[in-house]
Amino acid sequence: MKKTKLAVIFGGKSSEYLISLHSAASAIKNIPNDKFDVTLIGITSEGKWLYFPGSIEEIDNNTWFENPNCCEMILSPDAVLKGFIKLNNDKTFDKVEIDCVFPILHGKHGEDGTIQGLCELYGIPFVGCDMLSSALCMDKEFTHIVCNSKNIKMAPYMAVVNEKNLDLKDTYKKVLENLSLPIFIKPANAGSSYGISKIRNYDEFEKGMNFAFDHDRKVILESTIEGFEIGCAVLGNGEILIGEVDEIEMYKDFFDYNEKYHSTTSKIHCPARISDELKLEAKETAKCIYKALECSGMARIDMFLTPTNEIILNEVNTIPGLTSVSRYPSMVKVGLNMGYTELIIELVNLAMNR
C-alpha cells in the first residue's frame, strides 16, 4: 500500500514554542511507519524553516536545530508541486512532494490561521481547522462576537487595544461600570495561559494590563465565572465525534501555564465528576460551538460549569496540546476508545477528505 507523505511542522515564532516541541515529539512517536512517510520540518523561534533529519529526543530537549544535517526548507508556492523545496547544504536542492501537513504549532504564527492560509493557497491538505476558523478561535474577541451571535453563553467582556492614547485609569473606570470584579485579563491571541492575570483592584489591573500587553497588542477583560472548568475533545468534519468530558480540579485562582504542564496543585479527572445528564449537555454545547466557529478536523472546547449547572464557553483550542499526558488525547482515548496512533490516522484522513 502506498504510504501517505506527511510533513510534521513544529516549533514556531510563539511563546508556546517549547510546548510545540513536546507535543510534536509525542505525536511523532505514535505515527505508524507502515502508513506514513514522514518529513520533519522545524521552525526556529526566530522563524527559520529547517528540514530536520534527527531524533525525537533532539526535538524534545530543544537541540534539534543544532543537528549538522539540518538545511533550509521552503514551502513551495507552486500549487502543482504541493510540497517543499529543500535547499541542501551542498548548494543543490530537492523537491519534496507532500500529501498532507500536520502543523503541531501552538499560539501565534501557527494556530492562528497563518500556516493554514499558506497550505490553502498552495493546495496542500492539512490537519485541523481551516484558516478562517483558526483565526476566529485564536482571537478571543472574535470568538465572543461569533458565539454571542449564536446565543452561546460566554463571560461578559471588554476588548482593549494598546494604543498610544490608552488611559488605563479611564479603562478601569469603564471596567467597574460594565464588569464585576474580580476580572480576568487575557491576551486576545495567546494560549497556554500566557499573560493571564486575575484582577481585584486598580494596582493589580495596571500590572495585569502591562503583563498581557507583553504578549499581544489587544487584550480581553472578562468577568470571573464562578464554578470549575470542563472540556470536550471534538473530532470531525461533517460528522462530529466527541470524546469523554474531563474536569480540572483546581486549588489556585486559575489554570495557569505551570498547572497546565506540571500540575503542581491541580488534577485532571477524566471522566469529569458530573452527572451523565450534564456530560451530555456539555457535549451538545461543544458541538454547537464547534459548528458556530466552523471548526473542522479537531478542537478542544473549554467550558465552565457554574454552581447552578450553567455551561459557559471559556475558549477553543484548534491545535490542543498533544503530549502523551495532554487532555485531548486522553479524552479521545477514554470517550472514543481511540489510541494515539489511531487518532493521528483519523486526523490525517479528515484532512485529506475535507
Task: Provide key terms for this protein.
D-amino Acid Aminotransferase, Chain A, domain 1, 3 domains, 26% strand, 11 helices, six-stranded antiparallel sheet, Rossmann fold, seven-stranded mixed sheet, 354 residues, Dna Ligase, domain 1, single chain, alpha+beta
Secondary-structure blueprint of this entry?
Blueprint lengths: L3 E8 L5 H13 L6 E8 L5 E3 L4 H5 L10 E5 L7 E5 L5 E5 L2 E5 L9 H8 L9 H8 L1 H10 L7 E5 L6 H11 L4 E5 L9 E3 L2 H12 L4 E6 L4 E9 L3 E3 L3 E4 L7 H6 L4 E3 L6 H17 L4 E9 L5 E7 L9 H10 L3 H13 L2
The count of DSSP E runs of length 2 or more, i.e. the number of strands, is 17
Q: What is the count of structural domains?
A: 3
Gap between N and C termini, in Å? 22 Å
Roughly what is the average pLDDT, rounded to an integer? 94
If you consult CATH, what is the topology of the largest domain? Answer: D-amino Acid Aminotransferase, Chain A, domain 1
Q: Largest sheet at a glance?
A: 7 strands, mixed
Strand order of the largest sheet: 6-5-4-3-2-1-7
Please write the CATH class name of the largest domain: Alpha Beta
Given the structure, what is the number of helices?
11
Shape: globular
SSE pattern, N- to C-terminal: EHEEHEEEEHHHEHEEHEEEEHEHEEHH
Our estimate of the beta-strand percent is 25-35%
CATH superfamily of the largest domain: ATP-grasp fold, B domain
Q: Which range best describes the helical content: under 10%, 10-25%, 25-40%, 40-55%, 55-70% or over 70%?
A: 25-40%
What is the CATH architecture annotation of the largest domain? 2-Layer Sandwich
Which stretches are low in confidence, meaning pLDDT under 50 for 5 or more residues running?
255-262
Radius of gyration: 21 Å
Structural class: alpha+beta
